[in-house]
Write a structure and sequence with these properties.
The chain has 136 residues and is an alpha+beta fold. It has four helices and three strands, in the order αβββααα. The N and C termini lie far apart (37 Å). A three-stranded antiparallel beta sheet has the order 1-2-3, covered by helices on one side. 35% of the residues are buried.
Amino acid sequence: MMYSELIMDYSKLKKYKGKLKDADVVEEGKNLSCGDEITLYLKFENGKIVDGKFEGIGCAISQASANIMLESVIGKDKDEALDILKNVYAMVKGEDFEKEKLGIVKELEDIRNYPMRIKCFLLSWKTLELALKKQV
Ligand code: ZN
């Protein structure tokens, strides 16, 4: 799938949009350079992310990325989510990463060539990182 098509499809996804009332962790993130904002809600059970949603405003990339991030980490335990996160960071830095661990996220590899867009893309992932640090 084309990179731009993927962004368009995922930016319109409604599945993960909204407030999660029984969330265990709520974390806010902002990307000042673009005006993107998200509030991330995660629910954990036995160390596993069992549900997640987000509210927010921002550009198509930031919204699409939040949907893709949630699709990637729901059902994973904390260590698996951190491992995905590590690979996402490596991908945007242009370092070697484990493609098989990133699923749909690896389709956005080209983002590394657009420095202004990387912050939009990373907002949801950085917010996830903060949320995981809160979760004991
Ligand atoms: Zn943005």
